[in-house]
């Protein structure tokens, strides 16, 4: 008997009390979108489990999709049989023999959510384990460190048997937590911040500051490519490209060099807040890590934050660069991020930026230049691009969901 289902387990969703149903329904919809390219699968939903009936589809390809769906704690290939002890024993033996790797030891861990089933969990462990031992050679039971921890779940009329788990993405389903605007520079950090924000259940839109001719079209394409990778985790994403050249030139010409980075970040935040308000986003997310560069010291963030009352979410704030790079490689953005194209944050970079800027100084310097008209022009001329991943069917479904 071959594996015919995938059993999906929730994690944090189980703690959501009266909102639990809403979270599960969102996860179910996101899973349906993720496996939409497999026409024969049939997802179903229960109170504490989701199931995908495979109907002959490639389970490894489906597993690759499920690993990117936030809200899944773990999932397993499963054999579904009628809740009959003799059928369960035969299916358990078949599942063990089809596990796809050498097996020397195993144990059986039975659960009985269906309390009307006449065989208790401990008794079922013994019955199933004994049957496997009688029908195999050179395989023994090890309850402490088995090669295979076989789980048997007796649920209503049917029982599911699994022999191993895939780790899920964890977090909360994208779409349950509102929307945030991510400042996406094109470096290593900001895509990771976007990924971690989505992991907490929010949808994202992205803002990129583009400064031609100082930054190239290749730098812009790099950000589009990064956004495309992020769509694998959250569906279609709007990328707002802000033409920032004139503001950067004004900063370079009129501001003290050591404050130019601080002033630039304050201008970016003002623009991001405007775009967030227009697009109904409730927070701004950045890839800042405390102490990484001059604009990310505590004093700098205090001075830069002054220009907005919108919440600033900084998922990377306590991480070091190695941790951030590890996540970047894991989610598939690292190789794109290290392409050698300048972004606007490196244009006119001062040799000695202020690491402890003061709000009163920043305010005084900004009064010496007419930024308001340039800020308004930048917001009014934003170029918005809808980025999708390569599977068009999925994109349409995310559009329907969100």
Describe the structure.
The protein is of the alpha/beta class. The protein has two domains: 163 residues, VC0802-like (2-Layer Sandwich), CATH 3.30.2130; 209 residues, Rossmann fold (3-Layer(aba) Sandwich). Helix content is 39%, strand content 19%. The protein contains 14 helices and 15 strands. Strands 1, 2, 3, 4, 5, 6, 7, 8 and 9 form a nine-stranded mixed β-sheet that branches. Strands 14-13-10-11-12-15 form a six-stranded mixed β-sheet. Helix 5 packs across helix 10 and helix 7 packs antiparallel against helix 8. It is elongated. The chain starts with a strand and ends with a helix. The C terminus is likely disordered. Its EC number is 2.8.1.4. It comes from Lottiidibacillus patelloidae. This is Probable tRNA sulfurtransferase. Its main location: cytoplasm. InterPro entries: Rossmann-like_a/b/a_fold, ThiI_AANH, ThiI_fer, ThiI_N, THUMP_dom, THUMP_ThiI, tRNA_STrfase, tRNA_sulfurtransferase_ThiI.
